[in-house]
Write a structure and sequence with these properties.
heterotrimer, A mainly alpha (276), B mainly alpha (303), C alpha/beta (426), B: 303 residues, mainly alpha, MetI-like fold, C: alpha/beta, 6-stranded mixed β-sheet, 17 helices, 11 strands, globular, transmembrane helix (chain A), transmembrane (chain A), cell membrane (chain A), transport (chain A)
Chain lengths: 276, 303, 426
């Protein structure tokens, strides 16, 4: 029995290794490319003879990555904050009080996920220009928050409905506490797992956003990472080595975030949202 | 005396009618109304014009663009592609995602690392992934052809065939986002109490039987979530297509969102682009609501 | 209490925009000139940046903000035009009259217009004399070729289509297929559009015996006359004279392949020669005018706008914008820009020592014709030409079908531009 188990464990480990290798390819290619000099067209599978990290410093300076990092962190951070606070707040009544109004509002919020971004693009841009808010951090934060609000509310409401026992809130209500106090002192702390989940999903998408950032954050001062990297791709510009280096650096925070939140992430999806 | 007091006390606290607590979702609703709904509604007005996208003048043409949409042969061919991307990707992502989840739910040492690696492509900016795929598939000096060369196989131009490249796009999309499906299934698997399996083991049920009688039914909620998210994402697919083929050759691999983009920015046809957009939103709405209804029904059936 | 808390939070967020706006309007004493350009290579952008810095030194009250959106330039400009929010100065890259016309300020009262190259008159001016933009350089396009390869196989630069095809066949034979005779970056539709656009001129314009100008302008052109170009391209593909991955190759590969001597000919040129020389100085790239098609006809340079500066007519900084243009038009500065971009200046009083100077001198008697699609085709046809090129190369459409499709789109786009605010062909 033991021997059979070890053998099947070995097979499974081998399979896992194959899967890991298969999915590692994109990164491997990024790594080899980022270490090559301009004009080195050797195969993407091999590392260059002399490895230098020169590309990283060059990419950092040329694209002012330091500045872009800060901008991207501000926008992603504040958007996540707003999504968590107002998304959970909105999800509460939609999960607990199923009045006709609430059902309609819920359906409206969810159906927004189907809107093609391009349809809203020009009217939105015009609106922002008229409000004088182009090239501000605030507008990027607002737009990103609005864009991921439906998904946030969807996940939060499912979690609240199926995992948080009503008894706790009802007990507090009987004690005479106000709704807001009940929500923030009792319900919200229990939402930690799903909060982490939402954090990691929306943060990744906002961090990597290109379609909105390119139009609304044109000024160099407020540029985000993806826009800064896009600057390396001219029609004839051949700066693949710099792009790869910049991409690796830009990816790091998100990888760290995922590793840190991983345990919450899976726990969050296992309760509530799954039973949606 | 105390009993009466208690009754009165309870009566006072129980609300007569459930208040909808609408004020709690005001900020969220407001943000969505201002930044998503209002521009969208204004955007749909464009479908009734022949606007080219950049001039300050245009004309109202009533339903002409909608008539055009239905008589344009490209529309149906692209709708077919979009359905392929949406439903095809969803199918493969869910099958492979489930397999990965089953594999990486076993207690092997490398499971955490492997899970992370599978999820990594989700975290790379689509802009960059586009370039990576280009490095991989390009005919001259692409990584794939280098690899084939090692085995003595002559280089192939993987993305050139108009009938084949939509399928390649489906595969790449699956490869890239299968991590999400995997994570959802992992969570679902971990929420199934181990006692169920132990009981079934004692009853003499084999592995396969256990899967179909215990695992699958209890995974239905995860399946529903994955289905809805993947269908919407797949139908709206954009970045992967642009990176690999830009919708080409011609319009062979366009999806509705890339076609819309093309019409608006390349063909100076903003009115028609917006019309295609409405059509796309409509298709996604129908399909995702059907999927949601179907899987919710299956959920209650199986539980 | 609960309501006020929520309102309070919302108010905080409304104040946020104020904070950001405050910071950016700190420099109200200085005027900021926002300039958008399509310049794509580092050498071009750096030269422009240096000149802008010099301008700032001369005008201490003006700050110049340069933007090079690269591939996203056109998209951004479209969105900004739709919102009537253009940059103070922008590049019209060939579309000064047809697309950007309604937003451009009239520059006719500026000094440099006296020295405007006559080749650009029909492109940058309209009948009433409005000048749409300042040309930083002008296109003089034909075919770019690898001199080393042609010398190696003893091939003279071709002047007719027949000679061109012969040259391609020779290269394929003698290199045993290791060198691509004629290379297309077909992932980008514009590669094929470029082929059609450039060769349409010798096919339909330059030869007096085959002149379709009138028919094109008044809409009676028979598109079956266009089939020749599709047939030739298809023939080239069948004989493997163009690259196997013509439909999927990307422009960014061009420099790398040319620098490895793997390509003989490609359309146009741009700064290809300079860029290749940077990587491999042993590879010499030259250019020739577009070969003639009809017997007895001469090759032709295809010309027009490449990089320009147009001023937004509603700009609050219009005066400063014009000052910037005047600065760029100074002969010394114009010469610098022209040399950085490997193309002749748009002014007659500027003689630039550009990369292809020898080639341009060798062919100096060759005439220049403006880009075919900008003069004779309705706005939007360029994209269609690209699409059908891809469909031809991928065997989706046959040459005759292509001509039919082009005919249909031609009609539709003509009708569309008649009802829109386009200022073409005035």
């Amino acid at each position: 029995m033991r021997a059979a188990r070890t053998k099947s464990m070995r097979i499974i480990t081998l399979l896992a290794a194959i899967v890991a290798c298969a999915h590692f390819i994109p990164f491997y290619i990024l790594l080899t490319t980022s270490l090559k000099a301009k004009g080195d067209y050797s195969s993407k599978w091999i590392f260059p003879a002399d490895i230098s990290f020169h590309n990283f410093s060059e990419a950092w300076e040329r694209a002012s990555l330091g500045n872009s990092f800060i901008n991207t962190m501000i926008i992603t951070g504040f958007s996540a904050l707003l999504l968590i606070i107002f998304g959970s707040l909105a999800a509460y009544p939609l999960a607990r009080r199923e009045t006709k109004l609430n059902k309609a509002v819920f359906a409206l919020l969810i159906s927004i996920m189907i809107i093609p971004p391009l349809t809203s693009m020009v009217p939105l841009y015009r609106m922002v220009v008229d409000a004088g808010m182009v090239n501000t951090h605030a507008i990027a934060i607002f737009i990103n928050t609005a864009a991921y609000m439906p998904l946030t509310v969807f996940l939060y409401s499912g979690f609240i409905r199926s995992t948080i026992p009503k008894e706790l809130e009802e007990a507090a209500r009987i004690d005479g506490a106000g709704m807001l106090k009940i929500f923030f002192t009792i319900v919200f702390p229990l939402l930690k797992p799903i909060t982490a989940t939402i954090c990691i999903i929306s943060c990744v998408f906002i961090w990597n956003d290109y379609q909105f950032a390119i139009f609304f954050l044109q000024d160099q001062k407020v540029q985000t990472l993806t826009v800064a990297m896009a600057g390396f791709f001219g029609e004839n510009a051949n700066n693949l080595h710099l792009v790869a280096a910049a991409a690796l650096m830009a990816m790091l925070p998100m990888v760290v975030l995922f590793l840190a939140l991983q345990k919450y992430f899976i726990a969050g999806l296992s309760s509530g949202a799954v039973k949606g | 005396m105390s009993e009466i007091a208690r009754d009165v006390h309870v009566k006072q606290v129980k609300p007569k009618k459930q208040s909808s607590l609408w004020w709690m979702y005001i900020p969220a609703l407001l943000s969505v109304l201002v930044f998503m709904i209002y521009p969208f509604v204004k955007g749909t007005l464009i479908t009734f014009t022949n606007w080219n996208g950049f001039s300050q003048v245009y004309q109202w043409v009533g339903f002409a663009q909608y008539e055009r949409l239905f008589s344009d042969p490209d529309t149906w061919h692209i709708l077919k592609n979009t359905l392929l991307y949406g439903l095809g990707s969803t199918f493969f992502q869910n099958v492979v995602g489930l397999l990965y989840a089953l594999l990486l739910n076993q207690s092997i040492k490398t499971k955490a690392v492997t899970r992370t690696i599978v999820y990594l492509p989700v975290m790379i900016s689509p802009l960059i992934m586009g370039y990576i795929w280009y490095f991989f598939f390009s005919y001259d000096g692409g990584a794939l052809n280098d690899l084939l060369g090692v085995f003595g196989i002559s280089p192939i131009n993987a993305l050139a065939s108009p009938s084949l490249n939509p399928w390649i796009i489906v595969m790449i999309n699956t490869y890239q986002y299968v991590g999400i499906a995997m994570v959802v299934y992992l969570a679902g698997l971990q929420s199934i109490p181990k006692d169920y399996y132990e009981a079934a083991q004692m009853d003499g049920a084999k592995q396969g039987q256990q899967f179909f009688t215990i695992t699958l039914p209890l995974l239905m909620p995860s399946i529903t979530i994955n289905m809805v998210i993947n269908i919407i994402g797949g139908l709206k697919l954009f970045d992967v297509i642009i990176a690999l083929t830009a919708g080409g050759p011609g319009n062979a691999s366009q999806s509705m969102s890339t076609f819309m983009y093309d019409l608006y920015f390349k063909r100076q046809d903003a009115g028609y682009a917006a019309t295609q957009g409405i059509f796309m939103a409509f298709v996604i709405l129908i399909i995702s609501f059907c999927a949601l209804a179907y899987f919710k029904r299956k959920e209650t059936e199986m539980s | 209490m609960k309501h006020t808390f929520v309102l309070f939070l919302s108010l905080i967020l409304l104040v946020l925009p104020g904070c950001s706006a405050e910071k950016s309007s700190a420099d109200t004493a200085k005027k900021t000139l926002t300039i958008y350009s399509t310049m794509s290579t580092d050498s071009e952008r750096d030269t422009f940046r240096k000149l802008a810095a010099t301008f700032e030194k001369e005008h201490s009250n003006i700050h110049v903000s340069l933007h090079f959106p690269g591939n996203d330039y056109e998209n951004m400009m479209r969105v900004r035009m739709a919102a009537n929010d253009l940059p103070d100065l922008f590049d019209t890259h060939g579309w000064g009259k047809i697309r950007y016309g309604e937003y451009t300020a009239d520059l006719r009262d500026m000094e440099w217009t006296q020295d405007l190259d006559p080749n650009l008159n029909s492109i940058l001016k309209n009948k009433s004399g409005k000048v749409y933009a300042y040309p930083i350089n002008q296109a003089k396009d034909g075919l770019a070729y690898n001199r080393n390869i042609l010398d190696r196989y003893g091939i003279a630069p071709p002047e007719t289509m027949d000679d061109f095809i012969k040259a391609l066949r020779t290269i394929k034979e003698k290199s045993k297929g290791s060198i691509v005779p004629f290379w297309f970056a077909g992932y980008d539709k514009s590669s094929f559009a470029q082929y059609y656009d450039q060769f349409a001129t010798p096919l339909l314009i330059t030869d007096p015996a085959h002149n379709e100008k009138k028919q094109l302008i008044n809409g009676t052109f028979q598109w079956s006359k266009f089939t020749y170009l599709s047939e030739i391209l298809k023939q080239m593909q069948k004989e493997k004279l163009i690259n196997i991955d013509a439909v999927t190759a990307k422009k960014s590969q061009l420099i790398e392949l040319m620098a490895q001597n793997k390509i003989a000919f490609t359309m146009q040129g741009g700064t290809l020669g300079q860029d290749v020389a940077q990587i491999n100085p042993n590879v010499k790239v030259g250019i020739i005018p577009t070969p003639a098609i009809h017997p007895g006809d001469d090759p032709i340079w295809i010309g027009g706008e490449r990089y320009t500066l147009a001023a937004w007519k509603d700009s609050p900084q219009l005066k400063e914008a014009k000052e910037f243009i005047a600065f760029m038009a100074r002969p010394a500065n114009a010469k610098q820009m022209a040399e950085a971009t490997s193309l002749p200046s748009g002014l007659t009083n500027v003689k630039a020592d550009i990369f292809y100077a020898n080639d341009y001198e060798h062919y100096q008697d060759i005439k220049v014709e403006p880009y075919f699609d900008r003069l004779y085709l309705p706005n939007g046809m360029w994209d269609v030409l690209g699409t059908v090129g891809q469909e031809l190369a991928a065997d989706i459409l046959a040459p005759q079908d292509i001509s039919q499709k082009l005919g249909r789109e031609y009609k539709r786009l003509r009708e569309q531009s008649e009802t829109q605010g386009a200022e073409n062909n005035e």
